[in-house]
Structures are given as C-alpha cells and as structure tokens.
Input
Amino acid sequence: MIVAMLERATEEEIQNVVERMIEIGFNVHRTTGAVQTILAGVGTPGAFSHDDFSVLPGVSEVIRISSPYKLAGRSFRPEGTVVRFANGVSVGGQEVAVMAGPCSVESREQILESAKLVSAAGAKFLRGGAFKPRSSPYSFQGHGLDALKLLREAGDAHGLLIVSEVMEISQIEMMMPYVDLFQVGARNMQNFNLLRELGAVRKPVLLKRGIAATIEELLLSAEYLLAGGNYDVILCERGIRTFETYTRNTMDISAIPVVHKLSHLPIVGDPSHGTGRRDKVPAMARATVAAGGDGVLIEVHPNPDKALSDGAQSMFPGKFAELMNSLRIIAPAVGRTI
Ligand code: PEP
Ligand code: MN
Output
C-alpha cells in the first residue's frame, strides 16, 4: 500500500499515519518528493481496510500496489530517483552519466592511462573490474584489493568516481573505501544474500540485468536493495541471451522506456556487453541515449588488443572520444545534457 500525503500535511499527521501502518504490521518506507511525502507499506500486514487510511488527516490518496515490487515501482517516487554522488555528479537527473574504462584493472599504467583518456573525453565515472566473474576458471580473475587501490588512485588523479563489481558479501567491507558505486554483475542479479547485504550499506548500487532475466525479475532484485533501505539504485541493461548469435548478447533497448514507465529508478545502458563487438558499441550507445537512458557504461582500453578481458568489445580511446561527441549532439534532442 502507498499512502500519498497532502502537500500541506504536517509532520504530526505524517507520523500518525506511519504509526497506524506499523500497528497493522507494515514496514514503512518514507520518501519526501518535490511536492509531497509518500509512505510505502511493505510486508505482510494483518487484515485492514484501505478506507481507514484514506480518511486520516493529511492523507491525499491511498494506492493499492498490485505489482510484486512495491518500493521499486513508480508510485513510490512518481518524480523519479536521482542518485547523487560527490562533485555534484548525479544519475537520473538532467545529465546523462558516462561511465567508462577497461573491463579489468590490469596494471597501474593501464588504469592511470584509462582514467586520463576517459576523463578527457568527458566521462564522470571510471569503471574497472577488481573481481572478475569469468565463464572459465582459467581466465584472468582480477587483481582484487590491489586493483581497488589503483582504481581509487586513478580516479582521484583525474576527478573520476569509481564503479567496480562486488561478487560476494565478504568483499563489501573491503571495497567500501575505494568505490563510489558498487556494481552487481549480471551473474549475481539474483544473488539475494548479496543484495540483502548491499541493501544495508549506504552507498549506491549499479544493478545489472541478469543474462536471462525479465524486467520484472530485475525490478524484484532492485526491491531487495530498496527494502533494506538503500534507495540509491541504478539499473543497467547489458543485453540478454536470445537465439541470436551474431552479437554476444541482444541489447534490449526497449527495457529503457519500459523501466522508466514501471519504476522511478534510473537505468543506464551497457552497449559493450550488450553487443560484444566494439564496432557495434557506438550505435547502441547512441540508441541508449536516444531512448532516454540515464547513462552509458562503456568499456574503453588504451590497447584493446592486449586486454586481459573483453578486448573485442573494448573501444579504442580515439573512437570513444568520437562517440562522446555524437552523444553530445543526441542528448539535447531528447531534453538531456552530457
Ligand atoms: C563487466 O562489467 O565487466 C561485467 C562482467 O558485466 P556483466 O555482469 O554485465 O557481464
Ligand atoms: Mn567486461
């Protein structure tokens, strides 16, 4: 159940509603939007009547939520979520966020060079894997803590925020000082224990769509984070598995407007994993922005042919800078900036 308060509702009236919701067994999540306070009741309450709430002082509207995700649904925050970071950077607002960097952190030189290049082209986030989920146990698995330290060093040297993948609960604490945004990879989208733990941290999470996950499953995974009180969630469309084999995955651009309709959470597109081929990345990055995506996550490597992971889909720095120029033309056409 969602209780939307009147714009002029007093704190006392809000508290009264919160107490009544708790009394009947709801967990109450409160959000204060630009115009009104919204109270979402989740959990399994005892018997009650929605009408009893609609007549309480200060209440504007009581909405039954039939979708399985309550907090990730649009009605919890009709005006949309803006996830705010240091340096005035945000995701979900007017500006389209660009996150770029290599698939994996390989060496100090490689990540410092990557940071320099992507920041010069206009990216705000440096990406780079420290813990890598690889299909084969014999492939490069990432440099772990050393990589996290290098990421922070490179990010700080070039004014970039850091996004990196967390694969398991034990890594959360270790990563805390080094990352600004925890990435949950496609393979972990339904690692519910990990999601629960990340729901308890107060740092934003980038949740990637699972390889064969429906949009509803993606939103339900986001619900785990929100239910823990972490409302700073950014979704990511990174391609899903279909019968098509020409591309590594099939990038579902339509997920962007669908998510925007169903949810208040921002969504970014990852055309690198979405296509698996660097020559297809610019078109799908442009499509992401044109479709209203709140950002793009792009793999860029100073020397893609020597990359230890995902070389074929990593862009050459010059091509990435060119792509940025074209995104700067597209963004204003859909009411955004880059
Ligand atoms: C990555 O970002 O390098 C990655 C492994 O992504 P995904 O989880 O989408 O495969
Ligand atoms: Mn990768």
About this structure: The radius of gyration is 21 Å. The domain at 2-66 is CATH 3.30.70.1140 (Alpha-Beta Plaits). Residues 103, 273, 299, 309-310 surround manganese (II) ion (ligand 2) (CB under 6 Å). The mean pLDDT is 97.
